[in-house]
Specification:
Order of helices and strands: HEEHEEEHEEEEEEEEEEEEEE
Distance between the termini: 46 Å
Strand order of the largest sheet: 4-2-6-9-8
Number of helices: 3
Strand content: 25-35%
Length: about 250
């Protein structure tokens, strides 16, 4: 298993479930029979997480569990599968889609209708060195809370983040949970030359009323885990383009 490379929602599950199931140093069918681990899954009502997305993450998690990729690792003969449809928990606007405190984590973990509860994010490392921003599981126990799109996780069965020569790139063809398609972080060899490019689309993308924008417009990207923020300000007029569908300008 690769704890850092399988950090996405339900791919992190591969690490967490390993604490509950028996493992083996071999996955030969003739030696050990696979153990099926059926999991009930629920998403917070304010986020999008479909059956197909869950199945893809479970399949990737199964693959990761079955690989012994270093001396201290153990290959687990287990198949992760979804039990029933992805359900929901919480109430719209209750704030539990973003877990920001130990009290909120306790609330989510206490929900007994489903074993796996999917949230948007968790603020900080609230369950020891093996959890926090990725997810938490009771050991022993039957409750897990996982983030829908944790850094380093999988998007459409591939790693969401990849390292490039001059920075990092995020790509999610599934556009979950909030319509983000691509994020490009590019270093600047001189001051003022660094770039952050964000692209999103689809029904999950929450767009403001562009015609109502007034100068100056501030764009920000925030890390909900660390509180770090990157931003730029756009004062207009003049502006390159500003209408009902596009706002395009150069930062001040």
């Amino acid at each position: 298993m690769r704890p850092r490379g399988i950090a996405g929602t339900l791919l992190t599950l591969a690490v967490l479930v390993a604490a509950f199931v028996a493992g083996s140093t071999s996955i030969a069918a003739a030696q050990v029979q696979d153990r099926r681990q059926d999991l009930t899954i629920a998403r917070h009502t304010d986020i999008v997480y479909a059956n197909g997305t869950a199945d893809g993450r479970l399949a990737t998690g199964t693959t990761a569990l079955r690989v012994k990729d270093r001396a201290s690792d153990v290959a687990c003969c287990v198949v992760l599968s979804r039990s029933g449809n992805v359900g929901t928990f919480g109430v719209a606007g209750d704030g539990l889609d973003v877990v920001t405190s130990q009290a909120e984590l306790t609330q989510v973990m206490a929900i007994a209708t489903h074993r796996v509860k999917v949230v948007t994010s968790m603020n900080g490392n609230m369950c020891g060195t093996n959890g926090g921003l990725l997810g938490c599981a009771n050991q022993p126990g039957t409750s897990m809370a996982l983030t829908v799109n944790a850094a380093g996780g999988t998007c459409a069965t591939k790693l969401c983040w990849s390292e490039k020569t001059t920075g990092f790139k995020y790509k999610d063809k599934d556009l979950t949970p909030d319509g983000m398609l691509q994020i490009l972080l590019k270093e600047g060899l001189t001051a003022g030359k660094a770039k952050i490019i964000v692209k999103g689309k689809g029904v999950n993308l929450d767009m403001p009323n562009l015609t109502a924008l007034t100068s100056p417009v501030t764009m920000q990207i925030r890390n909900v885990g660390t509180g770090e923020c990157w931003g730029a300000q756009y004062s207009f007029p003049p502006v390159i383009r500003h209408d009902a569908v596009i706002f395009k300008d150069k930062a001040d």
